[in-house]
């Protein structure tokens, strides 16, 4: 990958190469390899309106431009837009809609997504139907004349349900609606929804793409130039754009995305198999296990099964709380996708806002534990979980 940046139209190179180089050329003046942090708000114009591509940093900033090109390349997209957070990117997709429009979405979407749908945009007279997205018939049945958007996540949080992206996108298009996918859990290393028919991919860059739990960001990717123009209008008009330091940090993160994801997946697979054999564990939710109901679709549309998993203990809410409080390497924290392992209990934490009956009906038991498997040594991670489970539960398993 040398200086002829147009010729490396990226599809020639594999994702391991593009993650490091796409959108990033050595500085032509200094030869510096790394994209500079353009800490700058405004740009000199030679005459009114005659500028060198940049006028004002909310509208465009060179560090952000490199990040957007890099992310677009990873998702096999023609266009990319970066935002100040994953929520800002989700908000921008909703900006495309009009009063009276209807959205079909999953009954287990990320809580913040559910919140912006019901507590912000319902007030603007958008309507939302929350359905079981693993059932294409249910998705289809929810469509109405006013449906303008199908919004989905796969794998979902925290039960790792798998949605058939190709099937869902086809339903959206038969009904003249857009299909947008939050690809945060899978990342483009494992799943590229635009190739499967989606119109827009959304990311929380805060998670695997940043990868080091040190930055908050979001992105939207598409192959549709007109759609990108509209997203760009709202990106600038609303103004939730990332600063250059944040853009730089994500660019630094994406360079190692492939190697990190390989280790996340490998560790998660080993831990899922270990948990599946553990006498105190009732159920493991990991799409890489053949017992997972979405395993076959996941195997078709993903290159591997990711670093997120959940499991249900044969235990009370309090005992499960003791397990997540007892780990040493796994940090008790919300969020996911960093190099370090995190553990959390959805019932009193990420999903506490859902009334208990409703939560149980959705399959989120009191003793459910969600894990973001990091890239530490897997034997240390298993020993940590084993000790935490043993010391919290009355009947120690003694298994390692
Ligand atoms: C799947 C998913 N989408 C979107 C978001 C929102 O991203 P952010 O926290 O960067 O606004 C999150 C955050 O946890 C998430 O898990």
From TrEMBL:
InterPro entries: Cys/Met-Metab_PyrdxlP-dep_enz (IPR000277), Cys_met_metab_PP (IPR054542), PyrdxlP-dep_Trfase (IPR015424), PyrdxlP-dep_Trfase_major (IPR015421), PyrdxlP-dep_Trfase_small (IPR015422)
Basic and acidic residues compositional bias, start-end: 1-19
GO molecular function, one term: pyridoxal phosphate binding
UniProt KW keywords: Lyase, Pyridoxal phosphate
GO annotation terms (biological process): cysteine biosynthetic process via cystathionine; transsulfuration
Region (Disordered): 1-33
Pfam family, one: Cys_Met_Meta_PP
The protein's required cofactors: pyridoxal 5'-phosphate
This protein's name: Cystathionine gamma-lyase
Organism: Natrinema salaciae
Upper taxonomic lineage: Archaea, Methanobacteriati, Methanobacteriota, Stenosarchaea group, Halobacteria
């Amino acid at each position: 990958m040398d200086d002829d940046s147009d010729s490396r139209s990226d599809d020639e190179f594999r994702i391991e190469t593009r993650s490091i180089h796409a959108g990033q050329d050595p500085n032509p003046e200094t030869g510096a390899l790394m994209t500079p942090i353009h800490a700058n708000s405004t740009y000199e114009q030679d005459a009114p309106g005659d500028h060198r591509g940049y006028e004002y940093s909310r509208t465009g900033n060179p560090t952000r431009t490199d990040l957007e090109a890099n992310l677009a390349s990873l998702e096999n997209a023609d266009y990319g837009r970066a935002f100040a957070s994953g929520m800002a990117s989700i908000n921008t997709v909703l900006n495309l809609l009009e009063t009276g429009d209807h959205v079909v979405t999953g009954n287990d979407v990320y809580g913040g997504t559910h919140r912006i749908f019901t507590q912000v945009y319902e007030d603007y007279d958008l309507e939302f139907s929350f359905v079981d997205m693993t059932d294409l018939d249910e998705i289809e049945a929810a469509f109405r004349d006013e449906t303008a958007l199908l919004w989905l996540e796969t794998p979902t949080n925290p039960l790792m349900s798998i949605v058939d992206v190709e099937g869902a996108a086809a339903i959206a298009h038969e009904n003249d609606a857009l299909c947008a996918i939050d690809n945060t859990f899978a990342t483009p290393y494992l799943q590229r929804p635009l190739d499967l028919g989606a119109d827009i991919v959304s990311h929380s860059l805060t998670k695997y793409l940043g990868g080091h739990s040190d930055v908050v960001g979001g992105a939207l990717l598409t192959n549709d130039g007109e759609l990108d123009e509209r997203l760009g209008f709202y990106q600038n008009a609303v103004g939730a754009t990332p600063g250059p330091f944040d853009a730089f940090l994500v660019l630094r993160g994406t360079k190692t995305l492939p190697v990190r994801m390989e280790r996340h997946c490998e560790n998660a697979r080993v831990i899922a198999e270990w948990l599946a054999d553990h006498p105190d564990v009732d159920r493991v939710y990991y799409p890489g296990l053949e017992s997972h109901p979405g395993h076959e679709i996941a195997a078709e549309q993903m290159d591997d099964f990711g670093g997120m998993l959940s499991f249900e203990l044969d235990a009370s809410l309090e005992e499960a709380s003791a397990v997540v409080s007892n780990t040493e390497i796994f940090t008790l924290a919300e969020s996911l996708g960093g190099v370090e392992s995190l553990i959390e209990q959805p019932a009193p934490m990420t999903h506490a806002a859902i009334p208990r009956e409703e939560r149980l009906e959705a399959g989120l038991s009191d003793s459910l534990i969600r894990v973001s498997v990091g890239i530490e040594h897997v034997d240390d991670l298993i020993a940590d979980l084993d000790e935490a489970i043993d010391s919290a539960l009355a009947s120690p398993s003694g298994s390692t």
